[in-house]
Structures are given as C-alpha cells and as structure tokens.
Amino acid sequence: MLSIQNLSKMYLVNGQRTEAVQPFSMDIVPGKVYCFLGPNGAGKTTTIKMLCGLVSPTTGTITYDGKDSVENGRFLRQKLGAVLEGARNIHWRLTVRENIDYFCRLHGLAKYSDRAEKYMRMLLLEQYKDTECRYLSRGNQQKAALACTLSLNAEILLLDEPTLGLDIEIGRTIMEVINHERARQRTIIVSTHDAEFIEFATDEVVLFRKGQVTPLSSPNKIIAKYGNGDNRFSTAYLQLLSGLK
C-alpha cells in the first residue's frame, strides 16, 4: 500500500510563501484507480512529482509497503512507473522500441520483450515501433510514453494527463489499457480533466482546489450528490466547484 502522511509543498514566490499543496494524508490501495481532479494550478502535478521523487515535499512522508521514500528512494523508484504531462519522459530521437529498451534496461530488467510487444499491440503501436518518436503524432507519442511505463511492470503507475489533447478513439484505447492494469492489481493514480475517463475508469476521486486536497468518493456517488438529476460526471463536477466558491 502507498501511504501519504501530512504531505505538503510550499514555495517562495517574490519573498512570499505560497502553498502549492496544503498538508493532507491518504492511503492508496492496489487494484483501484485514483483520480486527482481540480483546476489548473491546484497542486495535482506537484503532488505527482512529489510521489515520483522529482520534487521534495516541505512536510510529510511517502511510504510504500512500510518503507520511507526518502530513506529507500531506490526501492520506491524500482516500483514506480510514470507518464508525465506531454509525454516528456520519452526521447524524441529514439524509436518507440528503442525507448522501451532504454527505460527497461535503465531499471535493470533483463526480460521485458514479451511485455513490450504486448503493450505495443494493445496501444496499436506495432506499425510505429521502428519510427523515431519525434515523427509521431501527439497521440502516438502519448501512447509510446505509456508503453514504456507499462513495460517496466511497475507496481505503482502515476499518469499525469494521459488523455490530454487526444482524440476520442485514442483516449478510449488508453482508458481500456488502464482498466486492464487495474484488474492486475496495480496501484494507479491519474491526474485528468477527462470527464468520460473519470466516470468510466476511476474508483476514487481526490479533489484539488487552491492547494487544498480532499479525498471525495466514487464518481457515481458524486454524480448522485451533485448532478441535480443529470447523470453526467461533468455536470456534477461543475456543480461541486460552484459550491466551493
């Protein structure tokens, strides 16, 4: 289990302290998809970067299976797979297959070819596997970044805006793959504004607003409480935000 205790991040901006993420605690269990939801600048990406070890928290601890992420950083990094916003964790001048090889070998993996082929097939990337990523469409770059991460066979998946700017077909392909990983008991955290993804591929919603973090509930319960008779998650979310002003 991934446990977050009293986690926060503050920055100094023009000499003033800015709370990017106010202290919060929660436990994240395998086999569920947790959605980090909130307006731009609310602290979602900062939190994901703290979980990845890319940003040091101001306060708090992150533990996995009882091991602290600072004291056991290498252990936790071996358990993590992350897709950063804009597919920034792939190398543009490497092909899709070369990217997968690079990241798997970086993690010290010797046997990953079968997984690589599986995920390239699931993400409809087989015809592009020998193409340099700089020549791919944005959607295929995003899928390539996801294929690299999934090929690691990591226990924890951190996905920052995995469907941002993608067409409906590619977005649904990614959603199907994430549902497949949930069935394999992965620990999955997704930051997204995609209402369809939240409604059909998320178990728990965590609300971020002005640095405040509030674990909410399942999408269906949020729709029932805030939807005003409309069964769409997007309507319920807008109603929820309006009540927080």
The rounded Rg comes to 18 Å
Strand arrangement within the widest β-sheet reads 6-7-8-3-9-10
Give the overall form.
globular
Approximate helicity band: 25-40%
Number of strands: 10
Given as residue ranges, the uncertain stretches (5+ residues, pLDDT < 50) are none
Order of helices and strands: EEEHEEHEHHHEHEHEEHH
Polypeptide structure, described:
The mean pLDDT is 89. Helices cover 38% and strands 25% of the residues. The strands form two sheets. It has a six-stranded mixed sheet with strand order 6-7-8-3-9-10, sandwiched between helices. It has a four-stranded antiparallel sheet with strand order 2-1-4-5, with helices on one face. The chain is of the alpha/beta class and 245 residues long. The protein contains nine helices and ten strands. A hairpin with a 2-residue loop joins strand 4 and strand 5 (67-68). Helix 3 (96-106) packs parallel to helix 5 and helix 4 packs antiparallel against helix 5.
Q: Could you give the topology of this structure?
A:
Blueprint: E1 2-13, E2 16-28, E3 33-37, H1 44-52, E4 59-64, E5 67-68, H2 73-79, E6 80-83, H3 96-106, H4 113-122, H5 138-151, E7 156-160, H6 168-183, E8 187-191, H7 195-201, E9 204-209, E10 212-215, H8 219-226, H9 233-242
Parallel strand pairs: 3-8, 3-9, 6-7, 7-8
Antiparallel strand pairs: 1-2, 1-4, 4-5, 9-10
